[in-house]
């Protein structure tokens, strides 16, 4: 009796160690301080790929305080931490062995404040999985104070969207039902843009418990990892193609995640990337100059940040 009461109290406090939630959103380097996140009920993971909670987490049907305005083609930064409101950079964003991919989706909705994630139509705008040997997207989060930059496709239609950021922790994913899904939905209003309407999937629906990226032995021998869900929508990689009169088709620009630009040289020119923000690395297509007082510093081939 005592033990079960204590256990319930611990769960109620939502403070299970090493677990985490996406809590904050930055828009083009401006901190929106969690105003547009639908805060999950706790930092515990969702473990079923068929529950409606897979869309926006337990508690993720309750509206956020507000909806953030985001220009199409802009960069948002999703930010994860272990404990609610604790944005300290000295604590890992998601605890030690919770290795896995970071995946970001969007869904066009009529009203971001009232939209139900499990009924929405989702397209993937970014994903990072196994970056290099034993170095996962979650390690990138941990190296960047929980932050990861994501480019909003430039060509999507303006209006309200849900933006869903997700970590899939794989430390016990070697048996069915072991993978841990940590996601939050943010309410955004996209301005500008074009008329693109990317193909979509349902969540739940897009994942199976036996997908190779969900039923996965983290402690086995592997050199690659297959991120679950649909391919990344490629249209956002650059400005919408313009067609000259008489031209027929224009090739789509390459997706953000497969470009292989070299990391930029260290720069001292004042720019737009704020402290701890990403400013370079293989595949990086965003801004490369740090705000005054910070220097773009290479951490590894895949990550340079302003410190
Ligand atoms: C979204 O932005 C457009 C353009 O600024 C504005 O007209 C509209 O009212 C905004 N909608 C919401 C829900 O914020
Ligand atoms: Cu866990």
Automatic annotation (TrEMBL):
InterPro entries hit by this protein: AA9, AA9_LPMO, CBD, CBD_sf
What EC identifiers does the entry list?
1.14.99.56
UniProt lists compositionally biased (Low complexity) regions at 239-264
Q: Which cofactor does it need?
A: Cu(2+)
Q: Please list where the region (Disordered) is annotated.
A: 237-264
Q: Which residues, if any, are the signal sequence?
A: 1-18
The alphabetical list of record keywords is: Carbohydrate metabolism, Cellulose degradation, Copper, Disulfide bond, Hydrolase, Metal-binding, Monooxygenase, Oxidoreductase, Polysaccharide degradation, Secreted, Signal
Protein location: Secreted
The keyword Transcription regulation is assigned to this record: no
List, for all copies, the residue spans of the domain called CBM1: 271-307
Which reaction equations make up its catalytic activity? Answer: [(1->4)-beta-D-glucosyl]n+m + reduced acceptor + O2 = 4-dehydro-beta-D-glucosyl-[(1->4)-beta-D-glucosyl]n-1 + [(1->4)-beta-D-glucosyl]m + acceptor + H2O
**Which enzyme class?**
oxidoreductase
UniProt record similarity statement: Belongs to the polysaccharide monooxygenase AA9 family.
- Function statement: Lytic polysaccharide monooxygenase (LMPO) that depolymerizes crystalline and amorphous polysaccharides via the oxidation of scissile alpha- or beta-(1-4)-glycosidic bonds, yielding C1 and/or C4 oxidation products. Catalysis by LPMOs requires the reduction of the active-site copper from Cu(II) to Cu(I) by a reducing agent and H(2)O(2) or O(2) as a cosubstrate.
Its UniProt domain note says: Has a modular structure: an endo-beta-1,4-glucanase catalytic module at the N-terminus, a linker rich in serines and threonines, and a C-terminal carbohydrate-binding module (CBM).
- What this protein is called in its record is AA9 family lytic polysaccharide monooxygenase
What species is this protein from?
Answer: Somion occarium
